[in-house]
Amino acid sequence: MREEIDEKKKVEEYRKKIRHNYNPQFYDNANKIIKFLRMPKWFFGNIIVEGVENVNEVKDKQLIYMSNHVSLADFLVQGHVFWKYALPIPRILAGENLNRFLVGRFFKKCGAIFIDRNSKDKSYWRVEDEEIKNILSNKENLLIYPEGTRNDKLSEKLKTGSLGQLVDFVDEAKDLYIVPIWINYDKRVEERFINKVRENKEKRDNLKKKAKNFRENGKNFRAKITNFRAIIKDNTYFTLDLTAYIIRPFSKEKGNAYLNFGKAFSLKNSLENIDKQKKFILADIIRGELEKLGSRN
Predict the structure, then answer these.
(1) Packing angle, helices 278-295 and 161-171, rounded to 10
(2) CA quadruple 197, 200, 201, 203: dihedral, nearest 10
(3) Which of 40, 124, 141, 177 could form a disulfide with 119 if both were Cys (CB 3.0 to 4.6 A apart)?
(4) Shared-domain flag, residues 204 and 286
(5) Per-residue pLDDT tens for 192-237?
(6) Which long-range contacts (CB under 8 A, 24 or more apart) does 171-175 make?
(7) CB half-sphere exposure, 9, CA atoms < 13 A
């Protein structure tokens, strides 16, 4: 009985962490403030947008935006562009690392769905799957970064976890429309710190693995010390990212941000005659579309 209560409590905690708290009024007001304060100019010379007509053609459909991922600014730029051009507003799959004091609450109200990609708990992934399927069933739009993390160039292989969930949804005789997005910058906001950010993130992940091994071998004290070191590395890499955004407005050469929407396509039609490995084939299709968009820049 006790185990059932603990499991139920754990599941509810997972659900609370993952579930978005999208508030359309909050989203609208936040973007009005951003516009009034001319905040995009704090970080970029201009945000150059192409292909809006491709989204307008399918505005009446349920959309899944698929974007490459090069900067933490991606979802900030994209979120503002969705609002500015009156495009369908998506919920956003984001890393759990962004679910932090104050900013986490802001992102959740803007539609962030925080995912802990390092979790090994089957209960966690069961809850995550339920949440994503509920979002799709509620006819909400999604923005997914299938690379899973920031990259300097498009990844050779895309992550297929979320793509598999889309395939399952479409297999139930429903349909989704994929809108590829390519985003790029003359100069990333965090360019100056990106190598240090990655270095600290890698050290954090390695320390977490060591802490887990210590716990499994009964070395609880060493596990606590190692986990504390991992927390320090985690805060260090987040602070570096935050510092980049604080000092960016004072930069003289900010450069432009570029956002290009590709032609939307029906997921159901794309997989119509395919029986096996659908999520991997979908990953190849999406990567091909992103590659085409990227080659134009």
Answers:
(1) 120
(2) 160
(3) 124
(4) no
(5) 888 888 888 888 889 888 988 888 888 888 988 998 898 888 888 8
(6) 174/136, 174/268, 175/61, 175/62, 175/266, 175/267, 175/268, 175/269
(7) 6
